[in-house]
Amino acid sequence: MTVKEVYDYIIDGSNVLYESKEWGDEKTEIDGEKFDAINVDRVKLAVKYFEEKGYKILVCVDFSTAKKVSKYIKPSKSQFTRFIKDNHVIKIPDDSKLIELKQENPGSKIITNDSFASWISGDESVSELTIEDWKKEKSERLEFGFNNGEFTLARKNSKFTKSKELPIKPKNKQKVQPKEPENSNYLDNIRSRLQSLDDRTQIQTTKINNINSIVQDLSTLVQDIATSSTPSNSSALIPCKFEDEFGQSHLCLLGENLHLWKEGKWIEIAIGENTKLLD
Predict the structure, then answer these.
(1) Is the pTM of this model over 0.85?
(2) Residue 245 CB neighbours (<10 A)
(3) How far out from the chain centre does Cα 172 lie?
(4) What is the pLDDT along the chain (279 residues), one digit of tens a residue?
(5) In angstroms, what is the C-alpha Rg of the chain?
(6) Residue 139 φ then ψ, to 5°
(7) CB 116: neighbour CB atoms within 10 A?
(8) HEC sequence for the chain
(9) Dihedral, CA atoms, 261, 262, 264, 267, nearest 10 degrees?
(10) Which domains does the chain have, with CATH numbers?
(11) Phi and psi for 72 in degrees, rounded to 5?
(12) Cβ proximity of 7 and 57 under 8 Å
């Protein structure tokens, strides 16, 4: 069975990838067009930041960013493709998927500088999340920055402070304590269920023994019929059932006359008009 990965932080990879003048970057120009470049090294720094501190992370890149890599990527498209393949990176349609992944990982945090403005204004929406939900997610998300070329969470209003740095994840040395049963009489309940099971088993055993006894009696009777030297005017005797005047059925052999097994011996009965045979 595959164990599901649990993440501490969910990174808005599309947000991290873009260069920005906020971090001292200049717009890249190609064929006279200026734009914010997509820099794979940025998200590599983010992954390194969390993993060196012992945290499990998931990097998400939206479809729109993934489509731009062929033109705007640094240092190359092949490096971007290789990074996607080698790391915990998934492609998502939009920011609502970030929230869904957070809900699947209780206690996790979203890393993004996006303020979810279009979602809060109602320009974008999904049925699962209300405007209040988006406001809550905005207040809980963690912002990031690049200080002296290094990724960091020590950011506040484009400034940096050491107090915001992420600490090393503490190792969980606490042993899992067994959960106490909610019902103090649970042992009595178990004993009662075991006793009930034992009683049912005993009843079934008795029924099986009765069936075995009946089968043994039938086997003995068939053997007696097969080895019987009962006289008959017929060259062949056919096993059948005979119903007497009291409505009781008897195993018998049918030839020119009827041979009935009763009280440990064969009784020959002449077949008349009132004799009733059962198929």
Answers:
(1) no
(2) 7
(3) 26
(4) 445 678 999 999 999 988 888 777 788 777 777 878 888 888 999 999 999 999 999 999 998 887 776 666 777 788 888 888 877 788 999 999 999 999 999 999 999 999 999 999 999 999 999 999 999 999 999 999 998 889 999 887 778 887 788 999 988 655 445 555 555 566 777 777 788 778 888 888 887 877 776 666 656 655 665 565 555 444 567 777 767 667 777 677 777 777 777 776 777 777 665 555 444
(5) 43
(6) -70, -25
(7) 22
(8) CCCCCCCCEEEEHHHHHECCHHHCCCCEEECCEEECCEEHHHHHHHHHHHHCCCCCEEEEEEHHHHHHHHHHEECCHHHHHHHHHHCCEEEECCCHHHHHHHHHCCCCEEECCCCCHHHHHCCCCECCECHHHHHHHHHHCECCEEECCEEECCEECCEECHHHCCCCCCCCCCCCCCCCCCCCCHHHHHHHHHHHHHHHHHHHHHHHHHHHHHHHHHHHHHHHHHHCCCCCCCCCCEEEEEECCCCCEEEEEECCCEEEEECCEEEEECCCCCCCEEC
(9) -60
(10) 9-164 (3.40.50.11980), 217-279 (no CATH)
(11) -105, 10
(12) yes
